[in-house]
Amino acid sequence: MAKRSSLSIRIVEGKNLPAKDITGSSDPYCIVKVDNEPIIRRDDVIGKVCLTRDTLATHPKGFSGWAHLTEVDPDEEVQGEIHLRLEVVPGPRARRLRCSVLEARDLAPKDRNGASDPFVRVRYNGRTQETSIVKKSCYPRWNETFEFELEEGATEALCVEAWDWDLVSRNDFLGKVIFNVQRLWATQQEEGWFRLQPDQSKSRRGEGSLGSLQLEVRLRDETVLPSGCYQPLVRLLCCEVKLGTQGPGQLIPLIEETTSTECRQDVATNLLKLFLGQGLAKDFLDLLFQLELGRTSEANTLFRSNSLASKSMESFLKVAGMRYLHGVLGPIIDRVFEEKKYVELDPSKVEVKDVGCSGLHRPQTEAEVLEQSAQTLRTHLGALLSALSRSVRACPAVVRATFRQLFRRVRERFPSAQHENVPFIAVTSFLCLRFFSPAIMAPKLFHLRERHADARTSRTLLLLAKAVQNVGNMDTPASRAKEAWMEPLQPTVRQGVAQLKDFITKLVDIEEKEELDLQRALSLQAPPVKEGPLFIHRTKGKGHLMSSFKKLHFSLTTEALSFAKTPSSKKSALVKLANIRAAEKVEEKSFGSSHVMQVIYEDDAGTPQTVYLQCKCVNELNQWLSALRKVSISNPGLLGSYHPGVFRGDKWSCCHQKDKSDLGCDKTRSRVTLQEWNDPLDHDLEAQLIYRHLLGVEAALREKHRELSAGTGAGSVRMGPGEAPEDPLAQLLQVLQDLQEAHSSSPAGSRPSGLNRPLALQT
């Protein structure tokens, strides 16, 4: 049994933000901090929203709404933990309180050098004692002990404060921990790591004076049972899919019927991943195609709703086809971003002043802007269609086979000549309208770009996406009538329709043997989990670190982390996957950059080694760390601690320890990862999420069972030991009861530590 926690955050918009620039406005962006993870800020801070785990727990379906920004006080921006030992010991006259300040980790860097000069102040009963100052460290070790006289029945608390010492300015507050001395009387001793808390004694500005953020945040904690507990549920669902529309129970239609629109996307994704893990994704989608076709009478409404079929197919394309999408769209999207041309086809929106001059003296006319824009879009659309036409063999076999099933089912349902284009439109409704077009409009969300496009580039991408939609709609009169100003693209669109139909004909022309051969060939390869340029820090002499680094192209697969001079050059393995022991951040002061990570591994001789890699931004850093942790999560010998600094000279830069083999001064975060489209399938988690959803609609399923069994005289669903009901819906209800009992009888998972650790969003 395991505990799985996930946190999803969507920052929608802001309002009433104060102006920070001389122009009378601001250029706002948000920084997300979880558990007070350090973020270096060099811009003007407007305010923050802070949500604790307890706050999110009161919204089981997620928090959605506007939250007021509050001011950011340095005394509240604390992070890290402190290691203390507290004891009540005998004294010459009375019992004494002994406080041993051992060490701290992950303290906030308050100085320009990326570190702090921390010391600890211990206060009790009017007396104050201080530790020595540890210079330039966020991971200090003191090992100092203080004693205070205790009075029987005393109620005053013991306060332990961490401070950053400054020579010329006031000391910076790093956090505090407060202890109930009465409790110590009872326990006599307490030792552990304690999270530093902020000082919230100051008065605050009125709510709303700094503006607000609209947020959608959901925290989900799941207790996942052993695999065997979910096997009856998995077998039952798989049996239904294998039987298809001929099955007696038709559980999949019932699940769709009882699933609200609000949670249909999540349910579709969970089911799709479950069946992918069982090798039944194609069969599951084929069943959904048949169900949708069975209730559709008008060809022009096919797959246009947010049905379970549509949502499942969207998830399938993201999971199985994202790398294919990158190969086709990536170069076109990069070209649009690099050119940064002003493009506009709508005469009512043309702004000549934004374009500049066509010659040395004369500004461009509106007609010239429109013609130049049309030519730019024709070029991009033509390049995209050409890339698509050449990509048949690059498309994953399972995607091609699924589209083959869709094409055949639609052609069987609408066989007449007047519906000749309907099978093609069915394919493009997913490939173009629900996959390619959204990726063109929002390339960052599909990991095609690191940043969102600016206003000018966004408009170009939107117009290109509209053109792709027109091609996907097979250039129907209805699509042309919506926006007449798209007419200049019609020659390219008409040519694109012919290209697209030819592409789809070849795409779905795949037989079972070819599908299996392609899948077998793919299984022999190790596809990249993540790849891209990184800077590798080099060493000099006997492992001495230098500040220099070299840019190389890195590729992470399920076998190794490799590098090459260019993406097309021959790769050399740097670290075998099985040898990775940790992947963690490096503190900023080590290399003068906050975007450096370290991969700790063992070489072939079993000797510990570390390679330092620099990313170009914090988002890329987190993506690489997440990818490395996911592929090595099952490795034996993963480290529990590490050094966030480097061993330079004769000591570690983080904690100043002189033993190079020291275990480490900070804990590793091997299970802290990002949720990505290419995550390895977690079969038990998907089964648990499906169970959780079905449990929520159990009442509706029981009511449906009563309706279906009213004429058969069937009684209660509950069966005796070793017995199983015959009809699938009754079996499902029985399985839900069994799983509910398994959860009830399992040891209650302890709540995650740090219940009030904040999720902070700063603008």
Automatic annotation (TrEMBL):
Keyword Iron: no
Domain PH: 527-633
Region ranges (Disordered): 740-763
One Gene Ontology term from the biological process aspect of the record: cellular response to calcium ion
Domain C2: 78-194
CDD domains reported in the protein's UniProt record: C2B_RasA1_RasA4, PH_CAPRI, RasGAP_RASA4
MF term (GO), any: GTPase activator activity
Pfam family, one: PH
Entry keyword annotation includes Nucleotide-binding: no
Any one annotated GO CC term: cytosol
Keywords assigned by UniProt, alphabetized: Calcium, GTPase activation, Metal-binding, Repeat, Zinc, Zinc-finger
Annotated Ras-GAP domain residues: 263-473
Stored PANTHER family: RAS GTPASE-ACTIVATING PROTEIN 4-RELATED, RAS GTPASE-ACTIVATING PROTEINS
Designated name of the protein: Ras GTPase-activating protein 4B isoform X3
